[in-house]
Amino acid sequence: MLRCRSRDMLAIVLIDHRLALLALAALLISAGAPLAYAWAMLLPEEPPPFEVPAAGLPPENLASNRKNPAKKDPFAVFLLVCVTLSYVLRFPGLPLAVGLQWLSTLLPAEYFHWTVLGGRWFFAVVPGVAAACSALRPNPMRIALIVGGLLILALWLVSPMLRAAIATA
User: Fold this and answer.
1) How far apart are CA 79 and CA 154, in angstroms?
2) How far apart are CA 82 and CA 95, in angstroms?
3) 23-41 pLDDT, tens digit each
């Protein structure tokens, strides 16, 4: 049993630090890939480069000339933004102390701690909520939000243990 000095809590480290680093890197990459795919789905589709009209088709009926924008669910976009912020907050090396110091100057001391606690809970729970809502409600980014939400939820749950194992090296 090893003692994790950064948080003064006992951490049972049963994993080698190299394996923990590999697992954390794989989890970060696999959690970011569905988010990148979902953000790419929000971009408008480009027309084909060399589209030749058929013999009887007027040029205004070509696929590239149609004005059918892709349907975007605003609630799914909101969930995507929240899940992406949750992913960014769990990314190693992000200087959260600077943002928390700035926030502490804006809020009174009695509200600051509750705001930080509420923010942590919100961003820890949002990936699971996004995965559940996407599983129940059809939207264009359904699969990306389900997979990304579950992987980011796993990142929130597993990364403290993996970071503790990496720190013991």
Assistant:
1) 17
2) 19
3) 999 999 999 999 999 999 9
Domain boundaries, the chain: 32-43+69-162
Residue indicated by tokens 């013991």: 168
How far, in Å, are 94, 95, 107, 110, 112 from residue 101 at the CA level? 14, 11, 10, 15, 10
Token pair of 109 as six digits:
């001391």
**Tokens standing for residue 133:** 């809502």
Residue 76 identity (one-letter amino acid): A
Question: Which among 132, 168, 122, 130 is positioned nearest to 10, based on CA atoms?
Answer: 168
Structural contact between residues 159 and 130, judged by C-beta atoms closer than 8 angstroms: no
Residue 68 has, within 13 A of its CA and on its CB side, a CA count of 6
**What value does the mean pLDDT take over residues 135-161?**
92
* Strand partners for 11: 2
Q: Where are the beta strands (DSSP E) in 5-131?
A: 9-11
Give the Å distances, CA to CA, from 24 to 14, 21, 85, 166. 15, 5, 18, 9
**Single-letter code of the amino acid located at 123:** F
Q: Please choose, from the candidates 39, 156, 149, 134, the residue with its C-alpha nearest in 3D space to the C-alpha of residue 83.
A: 149
